[in-house]
Amino acid sequence: MSAINWKQFTVRIDVNASPKALYTAWATRAGMESWFLRTSEYKAANGTIRAKDEPVQNGDTYYWLWHGWPDDTAEHGTILNCNGIDFFKFSFGKAGNCTVRIYKEQGETIVELVQEDIPDDDEGKHTWHVGCKTGWTYYLTNLKSVYQSGYDLRNKNEGIGKLLNL
User: Fold this and answer.
1) CA distance 114 to 107
2) Number of separate domains in the chain
3) Looking at the domain assignment, is residue 47 inside a domain?
4) I need a surface site. Which of 25, 56, 69, 107 has the fewest CB within 10 A?
5) What is the pLDDT along the chain (166 residues), one digit of tens a residue?
6) CATH classification of the domain holding 132
């Protein structure tokens, strides 16, 4: 058995949706809030908040809040690289950087997320590698559910916490 690379991981899922729809799911406020976040605010370099359906650009910043988590767990970061088609890379706080690629493989549309530059100390291993990999597995499953069936798996009742579906 090979050693675990604690500094990165990859999660992939097939989604029966167009690459354009899946890119929009990552690159717009409306997209992110449909399957991932309670609030997704993207700001242009000049400080203007992007409209809900306006795609992000390289260098934009973000402010994210999750269902089931208090506002003090907000994530702030930067869109490091995006191409408007199938590539989306963002900083993810202490947890490193995430790169999303959307591509075809044997006729299926694949969404692949690589999280890298994860600290390999004990906190990084447990909180960022194991915790984020578990979280991304859930959220990519929800992406598939929302885009294939229209069913959102997230718990949106703020009064109930510590659930598998957040």
Assistant:
1) 21
2) 1
3) yes
4) 107
5) 679 999 999 999 999 999 999 999 999 999 999 999 999 999 999 999 999 999 999 999 999 999 988 899 999 999 999 999 999 999 999 999 999 999 999 999 999 999 999 999 999 999 999 999 999 999 999 999 999 999 999 999 878 877 887 6
6) 3.30.530.20
